[in-house]
Amino acid sequence: MSFKKEEFVSFPHPFKRVFDAVQTSCERLGWRIEKSDERKGRVETLVGLSLLSWGEKVFINLSRIDDRSTSVHVTSEGYGSILSMFKNPMNISKFLKELEKTLSD
């Protein structure tokens, strides 16, 4: 059984800056980056085991709105544990807070 949560957010920053900040944010959170493709604007990460779940995958897709703005689509999917239903929103919230912090540095 799969549980999924997703969210869309726009940032007033160029694509390259947001893409780099996405990777930095994932590293700061201790998430393992499994795939990263700047050309496609896609980063796939693995969030490890916790007391609440057996682990989740977080997919981050970026798209250019214009030269100074970027849209970020974050999806967190957990497998096998009903507790992922609660962990997925937490993953997205933690990631977006870290991304905002990284972009403000």
Write a structural description.
The chain is α+β, with helices and mostly antiparallel strands. It has a single domain (2-104), classed as Alpha-D-Glucose-1,6-Bisphosphate, Chain A, domain 4 (2-Layer Sandwich), CATH 3.30.530.50. 33% of the residues lie in helices and 42% in strands. The chain has 2 helices and 5 strands, in the order E-H-E-E-E-E-H. It has helices at 15-28, 84-104, and strands at residues 2-11, 32-37, 42-47, 56-66, 69-79. It has a 5-stranded antiparallel β-sheet. Strand 2 and strand 3 form a beta hairpin. Helix 1 (15-28) packs across helix 2. The termini are far apart. 28% of the residues are buried. The model has no long low-confidence stretch (mean pLDDT 89).
Low-confidence runs: none
Work out the number of β strands: 5
Structural class: alpha+beta
CATH topology assignment: Alpha-D-Glucose-1,6-Bisphosphate, Chain A, domain 4
How much helicity do the residues have? 25-40%
Q: Give the count of helical stretches.
A: 2
**N-to-C series of helices and strands:** EHEEEEH
Shape: elongated
Using the CA coordinates, give the radius of gyration. Answer: 13 Å
Give the N-terminus to C-terminus distance in angstroms. 39 Å
What's the structural domain tally?
Answer: 1
Any idea what the CATH architecture is?
A: 2-Layer Sandwich
Strand content: 35-45%
- Which CATH class? Alpha Beta
What's the multimeric state? single chain
Described by strand count, sense and barrel closure, the largest sheet is: 5 strands, antiparallel
Mean pLDDT: 89
